[in-house]
Write a structure and sequence with these properties.
The structure is a homodimer. Chain A is of the alpha+beta class. Chain A is built from three helices and four strands. A four-stranded antiparallel beta sheet of chain A has the order 2-3-1-4. Chains A and B meet through helix 1, strand 2, strand 3 and strand 4 of A and helix 1, strand 2, strand 3 and strand 4 of B. Strand 2 of chain A pairs antiparallel with strand 4 of chain B.
Chain lengths: ~110, ~110
């Protein structure tokens, strides 16, 4: 498995606006080959920003790379430039290979969507 | 859901030793209340280190906090001080609240363990 993360330093006071952009978008992801799961994550608050991370899980890195070159990717990012700046600088991309997975008993209790 | 991450800057040349410590340990996690899933992730290489991230998923932040105060946590971390330094500085902790989850068609094809 491969996990692609983008870290966003969201400007203080713009958190709700940033979340609204993400939560109201059409992800165009559901039917993309090799796409497993997406999470939008809100992280710790810092002095001048709140850290957010978008976090997508893929069967492998090749599936992620193919998506970034697809029409579905362009469609999902088409409106991104229309918003006023909500975060500092550029998002920081980090890709991770999954080396080990351990499942817990609470896994079966995980809701299908939230 | 809540995701707890620790970021490790692993010294160049110590990657295999670092992975061995993690992959050979007893996690003591499977039966911890509220524990959903753990991943060990290998991230991008930088000039003087390779980024790794340990990444555990919980039903909520309270379940994670309770685990850090438990005997299972102490047992899992008891031997951590016996190893020679494999990473630069201290691990950097970041906790994230899951705001949105999108599931893909490839999810059902995900192996139970890898």
């Amino acid at each position: 498995m491969f996990i692609a993360m983008n870290r966003f330093k969201v400007i203080k006071g713009e958190e709700k606006a940033f979340e609204k952009v993400w939560l109201s978008r059409d992800t165009h992801l559901e039917s993309v080959p090799g796409f497993i799961e997406f999470h939008l994550l809100r992280g710790p608050e810092q002095d001048d920003h709140t850290l957010y991370s978008s976090h997508s899980v893929w069967t492998n890195q090749a599936a992620f790379t193919a998506w970034t070159q697809s029409e579905a990717f362009r469609a999902a990012h088409r409106t991104a430039g229309d918003n006023k700046p909500l975060y500092l600088g550029h998002p920081q991309f980090e890709g991770f290979e999954v080396l080990q997975t351990v499942h817990g008993a609470a896994r079966s209790a995980r809701p299908a969507a939230e």
